[in-house]
From TrEMBL:
Gene3D superfamilies: MazG-like (1.10.287.1080). Belongs to the nucleoside triphosphate pyrophosphohydrolase family. It comes from Pseudodonghicola xiamenensis. Its EC number is 3.6.1.8. It catalyses: ATP + H2O = AMP + diphosphate + H(+). Residues 37-110, 174-237 form the NTP pyrophosphohydrolase MazG-like domain. This is Nucleoside triphosphate pyrophosphohydrolase. GO terms for molecular function: ATP diphosphatase activity. It comes from the Bacteria.
Length: 273
């Protein structure tokens, strides 16, 4: 009988996961695919796993969340293993850094500041601490240090929040609505008389202002669009189901029929409350 791999003898926990990662990256006995990877090639998987965690939470799929969190944790282990191989940093240094950061950003829990403050005040204090940290990194501009590779809607939201902190903001939502009307008119003019680049630019301007309206209304645009995507997916599936009862597929139908079925699906959702 072959000898059992010692990996099965390691106690459960992060130590076992880290050892599995080391084995996968072992130059002599590791997995060929894992050995070929680097930070850039793994980064898309890291982003994908984060979205899958968010998706499970949004769907309240608690039976899936455990596995999705494990997948996301594995991404951290993967990156830190590659960093250790390159002599950049270690898993322990990553844990130490985030621990130190959380302690520093919660002086009302780990220090002598009072816990008697509202969530809004705590948010303001958090941002003030982050601003001090940025100043220590010689990030002088209000927008410095904001990750460039964030999803575009989320980055627009964060850019506008940063600008608003230093007073660059419309006073209320009414001013933003007026700007939306202005940008919509400019997009129409570009469509009628300008080229593709100008149309794209004006479309981007309109999206950017829509994000600002969401911020003024207390709506996080990325979450709102995810919700809209889910609603569209659910309703279009309903249209497909109703077409299937008629022995059809969408490509066998036309817009008039599908639009009528869409209204039926929408009405059913409203009736169900």
């Amino acid at each position: 009988m072959p000898e059992q791999d010692p990996i099965f003898d390691i106690p459960e926990g992060i130590a076992r996961l880290r050892q599995i990662m080391r084995r996968l990256r072992d130059p002599e006995t590791g997995c060929p695919w894992d050995l070929e990877q680097d930070f850039a090639s793994i980064a898309p998987y890291t982003i994908e796993e984060g979205y899958e965690v968010a998706d499970a939470i949004e769907r309240r799929a608690w039976d899936e969340l455990e596995g999705e969190l494990g997948d996301l944790m594995f991404q951290t282990v993967y990156h830190t293993q590659m960093a250790e191989e390159a002599g950049l940093f270690s898993f322990d240094s990553v844990v130490r850094a985030i621990s130190d950061k959380m302690i520093a950003r919660h002086p009302h829990v780990f220090g002598e500041e009072s816990r008697d403050k509202s969530a809004e005040q705590q948010t303001a204090d958090w941002e003030a601490i982050k601003a001090t940290e940025r100043a220590g990194k010689e990030q002088k501009g209000a927008l410095d240090g904001l990750t460039a590779n964030l999803p575009a809607l989320l980055r627009a939201y964060k850019l506008q929040k940063r600008a608003a902190r230093v007073g660059f903001d419309w006073p209320d939502a009414e001013d933003v609505l007026a700007k939306i009307a202005e940008e919509a008119n400019e997009l129409t003019e570009a469509r009628d008389s300008l080229g593709a680049d100008e149309i794209e630019e004006e479309f981007g301007d309109l999206l950017f202002v829509m994000v600002n309206l969401g911020r003024h209304l207390g709506v996080e645009p990325e979450a709102a669009l995810r919700r809209a995507n889910a609603k569209f997916t659910r309703r279009f599936k309903g249209v497909e189901d109703k077409l299937a009862v008629r022995g059809k597929r969408p490509q066998d139908s036309d817009l008039t029929e599908m639009d009528a079925l869409w209204d039926e699906v929408k009405a059913l959702e409203k009736d169900r409350g």
